[in-house]
Amino acid sequence: MNPVKIGICGLGTVGKGTFDVLTRNGEEIAGRAGCNIVVSHIGARRGADISGVNVSTDIFAVADDPEIHILVELIGGTTVAKDLVLQAIANGKHIVTANKALIAEHGNEIFAAASEKGVSVAFEAAVAGGIPIIKAIREGLSANRIEWLAGIINGTGNFILTEMREKGRDFDDVLKEAQELGYAEADPTFDVEGIDAAHKLVILASIAFGIPLQFDKAYTEGITKISTEDVEYAEQLGYRIKHLGVARKNGKGVELRVHPTMIPEKRLIANVNGVMNAVLVKGDAVGPTLYYGAGAGAEPTASAVVADIVDVARTLSAEPKHRVPYLAFQNDAMNDTPILPIDEVETAYYLRMSAEDKPGVLSEVAQILSNAGISIEAIIQKEPAEGQDHVSLIILTSRAIEKNLDQATDSIEALDSIAGEVTRIRVESLAG
Amino acid sequence: MNPVKIGICGLGTVGKGTFDVLTRNGEEIAGRAGCNIVVSHIGARRGADISGVNVSTDIFAVADDPEIHILVELIGGTTVAKDLVLQAIANGKHIVTANKALIAEHGNEIFAAASEKGVSVAFEAAVAGGIPIIKAIREGLSANRIEWLAGIINGTGNFILTEMREKGRDFDDVLKEAQELGYAEADPTFDVEGIDAAHKLVILASIAFGIPLQFDKAYTEGITKISTEDVEYAEQLGYRIKHLGVARKNGKGVELRVHPTMIPEKRLIANVNGVMNAVLVKGDAVGPTLYYGAGAGAEPTASAVVADIVDVARTLSAEPKHRVPYLAFQNDAMNDTPILPIDEVETAYYLRMSAEDKPGVLSEVAQILSNAGISIEAIIQKEPAEGQDHVSLIILTSRAIEKNLDQATDSIEALDSIAGEVTRIRVESLAG
Q1: Which pTM value belongs to this model?
Q2: Within an 8 Å CB–CB cutoff, is residue A47 touching chain B?
Q3: C-alpha torsion angle, residues A162, A166, A169, A173 (rounded to 10)
Q4: Are residues A207 and A244 in the same domain?
Q5: Do A143 and A289 sit in the same domain of this protein?
Q6: Which residue of A has its CA nearest to B273?
Q7: What is the average pLDDT score of chain B?
Q8: Does residue B257 sit at the A interface (CB-CB below 8 Å)?
Q9: Are residues A15 and A121 in the same domain?
Q10: A168 pLDDT higher than 70
Q11: Has residue A77 been placed in a domain?
């Protein structure tokens, strides 16, 4: 098929970037794909004036265009986008999308429809922008039982934590700058509360473990409560705080969780700073591998969108069953390993509490932890500031089941000698 | 086609690892591939006793076996391996190989033969072991004009440089340990002189830039002359010394070079330690991306071999022209950009020289550099050791064309006040 004709729906940042990259690198891309890739139809609500390209303000006109082979969905959201994609699939179009929410929340339904029609649905751009992480896990590591993966998959959150560490700034201050720089939305909830990261993590977990997409089972905890104090103590203990998405398969099920995490500073992923993304994947044969790059932005995301277009263009002659499966595993090879609730997950913990400056407090706290079967790996206790009768007590624990830690924390908070809540950050060694 | 039958030639470390991974993860792999992958014939000179598998001591019997679809070449070397692969191709078999020397030195001929017969030749395991770097560049970054790439692609060399830095040990001492640990061969030339890295770099450059494989044009310089002194001065200047393979396309041609390189310590790749490998790739759309993992070893390499087998198994129904091209670009899209000789390459430089401890020497040296259009970015000059009349003078230069630096160095060495040769290490900022 030459040329392969595509329709792009949505002409925002990523849509424009995709058009630009296809235009600028057209010759190079054709040299790899073995065919010319032509944008023959654009759907944009506000219209656009691009010479030689049919532009519709009704994006569904693109899904109905008999000329196009591939519909590229870049409008975002999960309502209109879902209708658009399903209509295009019904019309026999292949789909390329950058829409993480759409895939994480409605992917199972979309893949079922696509499978029925024998068309491809490609979504490399939905996770970690330009990093070819879907391809790496789905194809590059296909020999492996994936044991776990851990990713910095939200650039805004990583920018905030990096600034807090490097410049000692506080959360609100950096968030405001991130918004001014355009890294964070006016409503930053999706980024800082971990919802965006959870969307991506759910997709990665499915292709790693052969399980259906289960966004509703993901545990998410944001970074809004991380204080500069915690960032500094982490540093003293030889750790960095990152907002990680972690998926791990253990004997009981699959852990699927996004939360602030302390990582030993000597790990490569602990040194991924600013808006950059990275995903660490541990396979049983290959060991740990890491993938790093820009997780967002017009052209990095377009890089992944166009790579998907080239992949689909190449496979236009392949029978559907010989293509790479949507979620890495063939339909009949998917499994129903359960997603574990967060209270059954085991990690180590950083605990910070405000303790009365008198003898015996540490011993009370240690006793509670010990009764819960939790040992203490490290302690920092500072002199009280002038005029203060409470001191910061920082404890690094051994690995413990979250529900045991919850109980111990409740008991610690009930002590007269402890003021307020215990701050807690999960610790992962991420050792190969 | 179910099952897909493969023949493995060579039952050394990687051959055994491949058999083990295929056996252990067989169900998982079939779940991804959509077909069972069965080892139906093994070629091993010394024979082997594996139940249910036909074993030939004549490896060419595998190439002639009408049953097998894919021949997996893991015998190494470039003479018998080449004959074996060409014979299998003539018989219509698809090829998977981990043999970097074979592809770098004879790839053009092998791909021509394979193209004629319409079969696949897959070689992910030939570069950086288990890291899916070929797939990342060839497919994951297919939207990009690749501007440059730089890789730590020899684990032995990286182990030696890491030990020298972390423990202040000298080269010969660490090399001996690497040999005892089995990281380095009894004849370590291939590793420490950069030949192994050059094989891999040549392959990466071809798939990045669409040029034929040109091993004979690669510049290689080993790490045998790196002293603990240089490692320490690099540290003081905020750098790490790594044995990098660098391929860069500029207006005049393609730089293709392996040499010790100073990299700012804040770069992620500067923190890749021990036997681990990493490749940093800069695309015009995606920006810098990095791929990290084990570059050697039985199962990491097997991970890549098996991923290639799965890829080939999946494409058995695709018409040859719709498969991923051997070198990323279609045959008629390859270009003849020349490989640049090393003296036309531009980098910055670290220079270390032994200077007489008297006034005016620094000014003489600075004058020579200035005359060659080279400026000085940083200087370290130490007090002479007791009883010494010479001091170490360390200069970090601006970027300069190598032949200009060569001339300046000659002039500096000719100065009466400079003793011996000027030690020189290229410096790359590797900024995105």
Answers
A1: 0.91
A2: no
A3: -40
A4: yes
A5: yes
A6: A268
A7: 93
A8: no
A9: yes
A10: yes
A11: yes
